[in-house]
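Here is an idea for our session: we take a single protein and study its fold together. To get us started, please write out a protein record for me. Start from the sequence, derive the backbone structure tokens from it, and show both lines together. Go ahead whenever you are ready, and we will take it from there:
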Amino acid sequence: MCFIIDTDSSIHLKRNYSPKVFVSLWDNLEEMIANKELISLKEVQEELSRNDREFWTGFHDRFDFFIEATNEEIDRFKELEGFKVYDTLWCDGESLADPLLICMALHNEYTIITQENQRSEMRIPFVCSNLGVKCLNTNQFFENQNWKF
């Protein structure tokens, strides 16, 4: 199983789970990244603040953590056109990471990790639930992996 992580969860992990304190968590994440079981997008990398970007780019430099969507994955974009968020944010090129995360998850049966509100139709989890894409927040991801800290 492969997981693809959104900008907000990347920030949440770094800011709330210090690598100096949650050593086993970061060891687990690093192992998943090395095995290509946890990835993210170049567009997510661009959305991160400088400090957060430098932190996560360390994983990219070692393991190619931030990847680019393929043409086949991008072709799934048409499946997002019926959602309110498409007309509001995505069709004008704003917030490209979100739709690309969903396209990649749709195409490859990845699970998305995001902290976004699960009930708002303007967020990733709402779109995912309507397309049959699995979506977890970080705590649900930890439970899915049977990690205890």
